[in-house]
């Protein structure tokens, strides 16, 4: 959200790393502990007209290792308001959209009602109508935010669980069902990786969530080889196959949608078809671990906690 209440699309409310804001608005640098523990230049401190003077700054998660994403297009593109994004999506052939809402409580304290802004934009674009064929997923780690969208039965409400869990108790599943009908798990909650070796899956967790009538998504996936376990053979398609076929996730959240689309549209993703000369097989946990020098594998970490009601 901008200072004057314009909702727009960006991965973070901190403009410092994802835009060229530091070259123009360095005096706006501040620390907001409710959002992050480092200084930043935040969107709610700038007018929309000021944000429009900036350029995007494409930064990957491994920039410190000099693994950059498309340096030639580092500052290409423009910022889109939420309304512009909805119109753009509706004119395309995609099957749905995902809108992530963060820091809603803090923004409301600054008289910026992001939930109201998103709701009105979706209604204005007709996404609440049964005639709209595109799905709408509202993602947040804030239960009140998701509960506010219960008045839109067409929308899927996705609870983000931002910490590792190994299982979920039935009371916690029942609690989630009060405000959400789907969850997004961290990659490390779906597949156990230690020292880049795939050790196993948390199938019981996914099964328990499914038994509670919750859809399960896994994310966020990234294509960079430094983000992949050795068992995925530096191939992001193998991780997608593993999450959907072995883990049993209903879908994935990725920063590379073209990669995911190419997998799901490929006949090679149909693991059950025996007439195909080639299929994209999921990784086998422990396969490479058996061949590795034990000294190259770090000690096993303690088990992740079981999700309990808040």
TrEMBL record:
<feature type="compositionally biased region" description="Pro residues">
    <location>
        <begin position="298"/>
        <end position="310"/>
    </location>
</feature>
<dbReference type="InterPro" id="IPR030395">
    <property type="entry name" value="GP_PDE_dom"/>
</dbReference>
<keyword id="KW-0732">Signal</keyword>
<dbReference type="GO" id="GO:0006629">
    <property type="term" value="P:lipid metabolic process"/>
</dbReference>
<feature type="domain" description="GP-PDE">
    <location>
        <begin position="1"/>
        <end position="264"/>
    </location>
</feature>
<keyword id="KW-0325">Glycoprotein</keyword>
<dbReference type="GO" id="GO:0008889">
    <property type="term" value="F:glycerophosphodiester phosphodiesterase activity"/>
</dbReference>
<dbReference type="Pfam" id="PF03009">
    <property type="entry name" value="GDPD"/>
</dbReference>
<protein>
    <recommendedName>
        <fullName>glycerophosphodiester phosphodiesterase</fullName>
        <ecNumber>3.1.4.46</ecNumber>
    </recommendedName>
</protein>
<keyword id="KW-0378">Hydrolase</keyword>
<dbReference type="GO" id="GO:0006071">
    <property type="term" value="P:glycerol metabolic process"/>
</dbReference>
<feature type="region of interest" description="Disordered">
    <location>
        <begin position="289"/>
        <end position="310"/>
    </location>
</feature>
<dbReference type="InterPro" id="IPR017946">
    <property type="entry name" value="PLC-like_Pdiesterase_TIM-brl"/>
</dbReference>
<keyword id="KW-0319">Glycerol metabolism</keyword>
């Amino acid at each position: 959200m901008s200072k004057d209440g314009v909702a727009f699309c960006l991965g973070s409310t901190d403009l410092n790393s994802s835009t060229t804001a530091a070259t123009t608005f360095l005096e706006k640098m501040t620390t907001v502990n409710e959002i992050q523990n480092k200084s930043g230049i935040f969107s709610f401190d700038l007018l929309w007209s000021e944000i429009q003077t900036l350029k995007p700054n494409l930064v990957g998660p491994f920039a410190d290792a000099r693994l950059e994403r498309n340096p030639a297009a580092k500052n290409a593109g423009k910022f889109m308001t939420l309304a512009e994004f909805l119109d753009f999506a509706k004119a395309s052939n995609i099957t749905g959209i995902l809108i992530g809402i963060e820091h809603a409580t803090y923004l409301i304290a600054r008289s910026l009602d992001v939930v109201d802004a998103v709701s009105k934009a979706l209604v204005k674009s007709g996404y609440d109508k049964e005639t709209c064929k595109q799905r709408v997923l509202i993602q947040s780690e804030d239960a009140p935010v998701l509960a506010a969208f219960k008045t839109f039965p067409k929308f899927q409400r996705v609870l983000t669980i931002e910490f590792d869990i190994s299982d979920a108790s039935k009371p916690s599943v029942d609690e989630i069902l009060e405000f959400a009908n789907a969850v997004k798990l961290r990659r490390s909650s779906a597949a156990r990786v230690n020292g880049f070796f795939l050790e196993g899956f948390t199938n019981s967790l996914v099964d328990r969530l499914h038994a509670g009538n919750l859809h399960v998504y896994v994310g966020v996936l990234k294509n960079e080889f430094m983000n992949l376990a050795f068992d995925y053979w530096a191939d992001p398609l193998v991780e997608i196959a593993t999450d959907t076929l072995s883990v049993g996730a209903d879908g994935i959240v990725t920063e590379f949608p073209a990669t995911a689309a190419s997998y799901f549209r490929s006949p090679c993703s149909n693991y059950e078809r025996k007439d195909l000369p080639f299929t994209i097989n999921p990784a086998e946990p422990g396969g490479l671990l058996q061949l590795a020098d034990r000294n190259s594998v770090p000690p096993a970490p303690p088990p992740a906690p079981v999700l309990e009601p808040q």
